[in-house]
Amino acid sequence: MSDRVTVVGIGADGWDGLAPAARRTVEDADVLMGSARQLDLVPESGHQRVTWPSPLLSALPGLLAEYADRRVCVLASGDPTYHGIGTTLVRLLGPEAVRVIPHPSSVSLACARLGWAQDQVAVVSLVGRPHELLYRELQPGRRVLLLGADCGWVAEALTERGYGESVLTVLERLGSPESQLRTGVARSWDDNDVDPLNVVAVECPIEPGVTLLPVVPGLPDGAFEHDGQLTKREVRAVALSRLAPVPGQLLWDVGGGAGSIAIEWLRTHPSCRAIVIESDTERAARIARNAAGLGVPELTVVEGTAPVALDGLEPPDAVFVGGGGRVPGVIEACWQALRPGGRLVVSAVTIETDAVLADWYARLGGDLVRIGVHRATALGGMTGWRPAMPVTLWSVVR
Fold first, then answer.
1. Of 76, 262, 296, 371, which sees the most CB atoms within 10 A?
2. pTM of the predicted model, to two decimals?
3. Domains identified in the chain and CATH numbers
């Protein structure tokens, strides 16, 4: 199939900033689609103009079908394949039906203006997405570019989380003659009357006293709100090493407790996905709060009891059973649902559940380990070792 849709990236400099090939594509189109702002950037050329409806994603397939026999040109901001409509169109129509003519993205323009190395900057799109996604990127010395952010909210959130000395730079209308910068410190930021076409740059300070929350498994137990039902730090790190998070893959966390396993799985890479199954209403709400506070608000929480609650869920690439290993049908359902190459990890703290895992280990093999952790505590005027309850982990690959 020949190109059905051509996507042209356009900047705030409008028609004057387009390359000749992009201009010809716009002029030759039968139908020109885009936002009202984008359509106003190009001159009339006898084509039909279609302004994006709202909501766009649900209406897009119908629009494309309506103009299937016409030459369609879609206008997009900057680089259409970078958090843009270009990737959506490729997903709907296939790469052979979509041609993309990119323009410098707001990210490249911002880095050029600030003198930042683009390959060393975290980019977070908050367009239609929870602002808490910012939290995952907060580390001392980290540079972050935020797309579609509310700079007032960003300044307040940084201050609340100990990053009040962060330098904020709001870059407005990048690429246009009206482009301007506003710079300040997060804790004293009070300039929120900015152009909606902006990028917010954050430069986190390197200073003592800021809590480090790395992306490697094993966050401090205190990072999670919990009622005691929490996979402890050391066990969590071992369990996640066997679950083996891979970008783009899906985890089921069955019997979520505080949601710590799923949250740490998601923090390893922005494309990782996770579903927590939790039967207790209060715990389910707590899991959602933990996920938002640790920068992974995209975590899906299913309130229900396994194995019934597993019906209809997308097949996982990995499953952690932190509770309910003795419930009839739970391990069977998880094992059957796993994709080929999927990893199953089940934990146990009681003798009865140990017996269940020993039986499964005899049937399917895998790896059966017992983890014992001792912590130094005060013992009179000296220090002694206090053991925690041992935890058994059974892991197996399908």
1. 262
2. 0.89
3. 5-104 (3.40.1010.10), 108-203 (3.30.950.10), 221-397 (3.40.50.150)
Across the strands, what pairs with 232? Answer: none
